[in-house]
Every structure is written in C-alpha cells, then in structure tokens.
Fold:
Amino acid sequence: MVNLRERPNRAAKFKRRILIVDDHPIARQGLRLLIESAVDLTVCGEAADADAAMDAVVTLKPDLAIVDLSLHGKPGLELIKDIKARQEDLPMLVLSMHDERLYAERALRAGARGYIMKEEATEKIIQAIRRILAGEIYVSDTIAARVLRQLAHGGNQPLKSSLDLLSDRELEVFQLIGQGKPMREIARILHLSTKTIEAHREHVKEKLNMASSNELLRFAIQTVMDEA
Structure:
C-alpha cells in the first residue's frame, strides 16, 4: 500500500519531504504526527511494503526515507539495498524494534545512513532525521564506538561471531526463536508461511553447526539474554 495523497503544496514548499515505510498503520500514523509537528519537515507519503516503497521513491521523490526492517514479503534490509541501487543519493534512516547490536551495522552496510530503535525518545527520532538530511551518519554512541574500534584496527576485522554467517532474514528468525516465539508466530510476525520459517530454521542450524532444534533454541535464547 502506498499513500500518494500528500503532494507538495504552498505551505510545505520549503519543508524536507519524508517517506515512511512501515507495515503497521498505527506506527505510520504516530510517526506522521511526530514528523509533521516539526516546522522543517513534512510527510510526502507512506508505504506498507517493499513494492509500494519502491514505487513511492520514484513517484514522490522524497528527501529521506524512514524504513522499518520487518515488512511484508521482502525484508527491510533488502529494500534498502534495492533503493540504494536505484536511487543512490536518497538517504535512509532505519527505525526498528530490532536490537541495534545485531542490525545497525548490517543496515549501514546495506546503504542506510542511520539506525535508531523505536524505543528511543521522540526527540531523538527528529534529531536523527535532521542529522541525516545534513549529510551525517546517525547511530547510538554504542554503535559509533564499535565502528570506531573496527576502524582503529584497520577496518578489516574477521567475522565478529558465527551470527555473521546468517542472512538478514535468517538473523530475524534466529532472534525471534531466541525470544521464545513458536514457528507459527514467527511466520505471522514476518508475514511468511510456517513452511518457509521452518526452512530458514534449518539453514540457521546448518550454518551454526547445530545438531538439533533444541540446541539452536538454547543458543538463541542465551544470545538474546546476553544482549538484553
């Protein structure tokens, strides 16, 4: 779904135009209200999935896109890569419920200019938007320190953990397994079939060299607990 009703008008002429990509209508509405409370920003459109987002990027020509990672069908990280390939100069900010320690660097490598978690204060979201529009990168102090440590060691570090072997979608499934979600609920959250989620689980087991689903479950739960 894409909302094209917001076109540039005289009142919004000099405001920076933001595209919201999120599959939850309530989340989109809340973010729209927040953005449009800022005197220098306006929402030019909304998209609920990757296909609609690509159409909106071309049709609306926003100044910045805010992208959630959990979308119907294609993962948000894949959408970011697609947008980057098609509209290289469009800055993107990831606004997600997913833990930044697992996803922030992946998002930056995919082409995003910033990452902020949905639990952050609303003023930080506006701050992140403005910084990215000014040509800066926006991440938390924790992620910034990690990136700087990598650069200090030559920027050519080995894989930080076995989790780096996982694809973006596999990492989503792994994290939800660690939160104790059953396969059917994971399928509902990610808008995929249970069979597809089970296939992802098997791929994760193989990549992490796990002998059984119970072993994977224990490791996933411990990983999530360590990150809490």
Q: What stands out?
A: The chain has ten helices and six strands. The radius of gyration is 18 Å. Residues 162-227 form a domain with the Arc Repressor Mutant, subunit A fold (CATH 1.10.10.10).
